[in-house]
Design goal:
Elements: H1 2-35, H2 47-60, H3 81-92, H4 97-109, H5 111-122, H6 125-136, H7 139-146, H8 151-169, H9 175-190, H10 198-207, H11 216-230, H12 232-240, H13 244-254, H14 264-278, H15 284-300, H16 305-319, H17 340-356, H18 358-379, H19 396-410, E1 416-420, H20 428-442, E2 447-449, E3 462-463, E4 472-477, H21 485-498, E5 499-507, E6 510-517
Parallel strand pairs: 1-2, 1-4, 2-3
Antiparallel strand pairs: 4-6, 5-6
């Protein structure tokens, strides 16, 4: 066994030493294939995606924005950079979300190179390649890749932040601070909750202060400039909207509505989810415990003490925010790229095992890959999971089938539509779909019949008077997760007063009622 292990290690060492760029390219290409396995049928398109698509196209048309999508906290918004990046893609594709989705998937794959460099800085080139491979095949990362939204781009920003920190503290390169602060600014730009990265930054600057090279005024000035550029939209918005974000943050901290207690339960759930969605599905709690013990071991061993401090701070810095999260289902987005710390740590362990017990190490590597590919195969065809997106089953491919069915039933006649939607009575999603797909393919638009919530994006004609609606009417029932059930019954009862059901069809998790107006 020792001879086999030695032979395997000699082969691997030669491959890594001579073919590292080719190996990275192979990992890159495999990761692209994995992210496009079910494209475009796995694209989830909900209200958030439709709203952002409307706004991104407005930006291209000249209506510039200084605030981005709203966050879960009232009065706090993400940065607008996402609109400026995807706006030209929507324009180029004439509104087709599929091109934007393809771009985000490829962007996510670029993280392979950042993970490789981070792990190489922390440990070695071999570990960097293993980490790049595990990142490329990570179920969690494929979920970010297929997500049509700004958090997808935040993955790269967070990795850039930690790449800068490893350059600063491990390699003692002054440019590391510039890269780290640029990554920090972009992270906050793409998702406001990533302001929490100031915590690991501050801790590492304190704990590893003796590792910081002499920076000089020029480096500090460049670091401040790149961070200011990346977050400039927030400063503009604060002045323009009377410091709304600061006031909202202060209000949130002072009035947490019973949320003053710390929720350690969600921290544990998310930490185990890191393991489940990146390393191995079974026994995630025990695997997490082993990983934490390895971190302690690395800290005790002087050789990798600095690396262990960075990985530990990275891990717990991404989990800290969940102490204040009291949701029943902790969302993915608060811990973007936090799991990569465990991916790199796992790569270190696997490399050690391959060096000492090559068959066991390779077997465990195969199990990690198998676990992730199993999740990808069984979950990704259905789009994003509910930890990322509220409504599961809101697939763009099924929405197009819904529209095709509706237009074919009308045979060119005028018709109206209504929807049981989330948010309730908001027509933004279907307005976008009919304006982009329906109008382009069939040449005309329906009218929106019945009640609707005002103040939301959408350009479809609204007809409130039931007597003025066309005789053909369709009610689209979206996947009902997140919709208050009595509201569904109430709306169907109201529809029954004015129209009768001629036919009901299902497309995935959508139900479509073909109705005729009562006379």
């Amino acid at each position: 066994m020792k001879r086999v292990a030695k032979s395997v290690n000699v082969i691997i060492t030669r491959m890594v030493g001579e073919k590292v760029n080719w190996l990275l390219l192979i990992i890159f290409l495999v990761a692209i294939v994995v992210r496009f396995l079910y494209f475009p049928n796995d694209i989830s398109f909900t209200y958030d995606q439709a709203r952002d698509a409307f706004i991104a196209r407005e930006v291209v048309a000249g209506d510039l924005k200084i605030i981005g999508p709203p966050s879960t906290f009232e009065g706090i918004f993400h940065g607008p950079l996402y609109y400026y990046i995807v706006g030209p893609l929507y324009q180029l594709s004439n509104g087709n979300p599929e091109l934007v989705s393809a771009f985000l998937r490829i962007s996510n794959v670029l993280g392979i190179f950042l993970v490789f460099m981070i792990a190489r800085n922390l440990f070695s080139q071999r570990i960097g390649l293993i980490a790049a491979m595990l990142f490329g095949l990570s179920f969690e990362q494929t979920q970010y890749a297929i997500f049509l939204g700004h958090p997808s781009l935040a993955v790269l920003a967070v990795l850039l932040f930690y790449l800068g920190l490893t350059l600063l503290f491990i390699k003692k390169e002054r440019k590391g601070l510039i890269i780290a602060l640029f990554g920090l600014g972009l992270s906050i730009q793409f998702h406001f909750s990533l302001i929490i990265l100031f915590l690991p930054l501050s801790l590492l600057l304190f704990l590893l202060r003796k590792r910081i090279p002499l920076l000089g005024e020029k480096t500090l000035m460049k670091s401040l400039i790149v961070f200011s550029i990346a977050t400039a939209s927030y400063l503009l918005a604060e002045f323009n909207f009377n410091f709304r974000t600061i006031k909202s943050l202060v209000g949130f901290l002072l009035n947490r509505d019973g949320g003053a207690y710390l929720n350690m339960g969600n921290v544990i759930i998310v930490a185990q989810r890191f393991v489940h969605d990146n390393i191995f599905q079974a026994k995630s709690g025990w695997i997490l415990l082993v990983l934490l013990l390895v971190l302690i071991y690395l800290f005790i061993k002087k050789k990798h003490r600095i690396s262990s401090i960075i990985l530990t701070t990275w891990l717990f810095g991404s989990l800290f925010i969940y102490l204040f999260d009291h949701s029943n289902l902790p969302p993915y987005q608060y811990s973007i790229a936090g799991s990569v710390s465990l991916v790199i740590l796992t790569s270190y362990i696997l490399n050690k095992l391959i060096q000492k017990q090559s068959m066991i190490g390779l077997l465990l590597l195969g199990l990690v890959i198998s676990s992730n590919t199993h999740l990808i195969k069984n979950i990704n065809p259905g789009g994003n999971i509910v930890e990322i997106i509220v409504q599961d089953g809101m697939l763009l491919s099924k929405q197009k089938e819904v529209l095709d069915y509706i237009y074919q039933k009308t045979s060119g006649d005028k018709f109206s539509i209504g929807a049981i939607s989330n948010p309730f009575k908001v027509n933004t999603t279907w307005s976008y779909l009919f304006e982009w797909y329906g109008s382009e393919k069939y040449g005309y638009l329906p009218v929106w019949g019945g009640d609707y919530a005002e103040g939301f994006k959408g350009n479809m004609e609204i007809v409130n008077s039931r007597s003025k609606l066309p005789s053909k009417h369709f009610v689209i029932i979206e996947p009902t997760r997140g919709i208050y059930k009595p509201l569904i019954s109430k709306m169907i009862n109201e529809e029954d007063i004015f129209s009768e059901v001629l036919e009901e069809q299902s497309f995935g998790k959508f139900k479509i009622q073909f109705r005729q107006k009562k006379h």
